[in-house]
Specification:
heterodimer; A: 262 residues; alpha/beta; Rossmann fold; 6-stranded mixed beta sheet; 4-stranded antiparallel beta sheet; 10 helices; B: 291 residues; mainly alpha; ABC transporter involved in vitamin B12 uptake, BtuC; two-stranded antiparallel sheet; 11 helices; 73% helix; globular
Chain lengths: 262, 291
C-alpha cells in the first residue's frame, strides 16, 4: 500500500485500519486500529459484548466490514471470501466449539489439510500412487499435530466424545493444519481448570515458536492473557479503549473503569 | 423354492432403489435439501443410454459411460442454475424449485422425445442361472453386484479421501468448513455430480429390467428411492443402502404373497409404521437437542 513507505520499520502481518461494522442501527465495532507482527502473541480483551468475536468474524470475512481496511501479509483483503482468507493464512478457533463432532479426532485435523493436499478427486477415484503417498503424508502430519497438542492418545475417538479441554486443543490442531501465518484463538481457555490453563499457555508459546506464526487471542482469563501476551488491545463498546504491554494495561485507569465500573 | 427366488428378485429391485437413494441421501446430507428432480435425472439417463444404443449403435459399456457423463453434467448444471442461487433461501423455496426442475425435465423430455414410450433394447443376455431351486436372471445378478461395488467404492471415497472428509465436514458445519479453507460450493457440486452419476447407472439397470422409456418414468422409482432413503435414515449412506434393499424385498414379497395392486400401498404403509417407531429412520442420526 502507498502509505507504507517507512521500510525501516517492520511491516505487520496483520494491519487493521479504521475497521468498523454496523448491524442495522447498531455499531458493533468502530474505528479499530490494530497491528500484529510476525511471531507475536497479542491479546484482545474487553467486557462481554465489547465486540471481540465480531472482530474475529471481520478478520475471517464471516462478516463484511462496513468501513475500514484489513491488510493481511501486505495485501488488502477487501473482496476476499472466507475460503480465500483461510488460504491466505488466517486460521481460527471458535468460542462455542465447532468441531466436526461425528468425525474422528484424526479426521478433524485432516479436514484442515484439505487445501494443502495436492491430489484431485479423480486421482482418488482411480487410486493412483499420488493418492496413497499424499494420504500417508497427511496422516503423518496430522498425527504430529495431535502429538503437539497432546491428543495423540485420542486419535481414533469421535471428536464429540473428547473432554472439553481436549476439544479446545483439537480446534487449535485443526486450525494449525491449514498452515496459517496468523492464528486466531477465541477464548481458548474457556471451561478449563487452572492446571489445564497453565498447560495451554505452554502449548500456545510452543506453537508460536515451533510454527513461527503470530497469534491473536481473545480471553477472559487474565492470568493467561497477562502471562503470554506481549501486547494487549482492550475493546469496549466496539471501540479501542487502550493498547499496550500487559503492565501498561493493568495500570490503565480507563481499563480498570471499564471492567469494574466507577 | 419360490421364497428364495422372490428374495433374490427383491434384492435386485432393492439394489436399484439403493443406488438411487444414495443420490437423495448424499445431497440431503450435504446441501440439506430434497432434490426431487433426482428421479427425472434417471429418466434422462435412460433416454441417453437408449439413443446411444439404438441411434449411435454404441456398445453397451460405452452407452452406460455416455449416460453417466451426461447425467453428471446435468446434475451439476441443475445445482448451479436452480439451487445455488437459493443457498440462503428458506428450505421451502428450494423444495418448490426442485419440484419445478422435475417438471421442467419431464416436459422437456416430452417436447424433445415425445410422450410415447420407447422400447429399451435388451443388451444384457436374458439367460439365468439356478441357485438352489431358484432361477435368477443375469440381469438381477448384475444389478446386485453393481450395487455392492458402488457401495464399497462410495464408502471408501467418503472415508478415505480428502474430498470425502471435506464432504463429511460440510454435512456437519458448513461455516466451520469454510473457515478451514474448504470450498463448500465445490463440495456441493461434487456431491451432485456423484449422485447424478449414480442415477445414470441406476437408469440403465432400471430400463433393462422394465424396458420402456418415457418422460415420467423417473417419478415412481424416484419416490420409492426417496422413501428408501428416509426409511434408512436420510443423510446416512449405509442407511440408503439398507433402506433400499429392505424396500425392494418388501415390495416383491407384497406383490408375490399379498396383492400386486396393493404392493405400493404396503410399501408406503411400512414406511409410515417405521417412522412412527423410529422417526429418524433405521440408521438415522439421533438428533441431539442442546440444553
Amino acid at each position: 500500500m502507498a502509505d507504507h513507505t517507512d521500510n525501516n520499520v517492520k511491516t505487520p502481518v496483520l494491519d487493521v485500519q479504521e475497521l468498523g461494522i454496523d448491524f442495522g442501527g447498531l455499531t458493533a465495532v468502530n474505528d479499530l486500529n490494530m497491528q500484529v507482527y510476525d511471531g507475536e502473541i497479542v491479546g484482545l480483551i474487553g467486557p462481554n459484548g465489547a465486540g471481540k468475536t465480531t472482530v474475529f468474524n471481520l478478520l475471517t470475512k464471516v462478516y463484511k466490514p462496513s468501513r475500514g481496511r484489513i491488510i493481511f501479509d501486505g495485501k488488502d483483503t477487501a473482496g476476499k471470501s472466507v475460503v480465500d482468507i483461510n488460504k491466505a493464512g488466517i486460521a481460527r478457533t471458535f468460542q462455542n466449539i465447532r468441531l466436526f463432532g461425528n468425525l474422528s479426532v484424526l479426521d478433524n485435523v485432516k479436514t484442515g489439510f484439505h487445501n494443502v493436499t495436492p491430489y484431485s478427486p479423480i486421482t482418488a477415484i482411480l487410486r493412483l500412487p499420488k493418492y496413497f503417498t499424499s494420504e500417508r503424508e497427511i496422516d503423518e502430519k496430522a498425527r504430529d499435530l495431535l502429538k503437539i497438542m497432546e491428543l495423540d492418545k485420542f486419535a481414533d475417538y469421535t471428536a464429540s466424545n473428547l473432554p472439553y479441554g481436549a476439544q479446545r486443543r483439537l480446534e487449535i490442531a485443526r486450525a494449525l493444519a491449514t498452515n496459517p501465518k496468523l492464528l486466531l484463538l477465541d477464548e481458548p481457555a474457556a471451561g478449563m481448570n487452572p492446571q489445564e490453563t497453565s498447560e495451554l499457555m505452554d502449548m500456545i508459546r510452543f506453537v508460536r515458536d515451533h510454527f513461527k506464526i503470530a497469534i491473536l487471542l481473545i480471553e477472559h482469563d487474565m492470568k493467561l492473557v497477562m502471562g503470554i501476551c506481549e501486547r494487549i488491545t482492550v475493546l469496549n463498546y466496539g471501540m479501542m479503549l487502550a493498547q499496550g504491554t500487559p503492565e501498561e494495561i493493568q495500570s490503565n485507569p480507563e481499563v480498570i473503569k471499564a471492567y469494574l465500573g466507577d | 423354492m419360490q421364497f428364495l427366488s422372490y428374495l433374490i428378485n427383491g434384492l435386485g429391485l432393492g439394489s436399484v432403489y439403493a443406488i438411487i437413494a444414495l443420490g437423495y441421501t448424499m445431497v440431503y446430507g450435504i446441501a440439506k435439501m430434497l432434490n426431487f428432480a433426482h428421479g427425472d435425472v434417471i429418466m434422462v439417463g435412460s433416454y441417453i443410454a437408449f439413443f446411444a444404443l439404438t441411434k449411435f449403435g454404441l456398445p453397451f459399456p460405452l452407452a452406460v459411460l455416455t449416460a453417466i457423463l451426461v447425467c453428471t453434467v446435468l446434475g451439476v448444471v441443475i445445482e448451479r442454475l436452480a439451487y445455488k442461487p437459493l443457498r440462503q433461501a428458506p428450505s421451502l423455496a428450494v423444495l418448490i424449485t426442485a419440484i419445478g426442475v422435475s417438471y421442467f425435465l419431464q416436459n422437456g423430455a416430452q417436447i424433445l422425445w415425445s410422450s410415447s414410450s420407447k422400447v429399451f433394447p435388451s443388451v444384457i443376455s436374458a439367460g439365468s442361472i439356478s441357485i438352489g431351486a431358484a432361477s435368477v436372471s443375469y440381469l438381477t445378478l448384475l444389478t446386485i453386484a453393481t450395487c455392492i461395488v458402488v457401495m464399497i467404492c462410495l464408502t471408501l471415497f467418503i472415508n478415505k479421501t480428502k474430498t470425502g472428509s471435506a464432504m463429511r465436514a460440510c454435512s456437519e458445519d458448513k461455516g466451520a468448513s469454510m473457515l478451514m479453507g474448504i470450498n463448500v460450493n465445490q463440495i456441493i457440486s461434487i456431491t451432485f455430480a456423484i449422485g447424478s452419476g449414480l442415477a445414470a447407472i441406476a437408469s440403465v439397470l432400471l430400463a433393462s429390467t422394465y424396458p420402456s422409456v418415457y418422460p415420467t418414468m423417473g417419478s415412481m422409482p424416484g419416490i420409492k428411492a426417496f422413501t428408501a432413503a428416509v426409511f434408512g435414515g436420510i443423510g446416512s449412506v449405509p442407511g440408503a443402502f439398507v433402506g433400499g434393499l429392505i424396500l425392494g424385498i418388501i415390495e416383491i414379497f407384497a406383490k408375490a404373497y399379498i396383492s400386486t395392486q396393493l404392493s405400493d400401498a404396503i410399501v408406503f404403509g411400512v414406511l409410515i409404521v417405521i417412522l412412527l417407531i423410529k422417526p429418524t429412520g433405521l440408521l438415522g442420526k439421533k438428533i441431539n437437542v442442546k440444553v
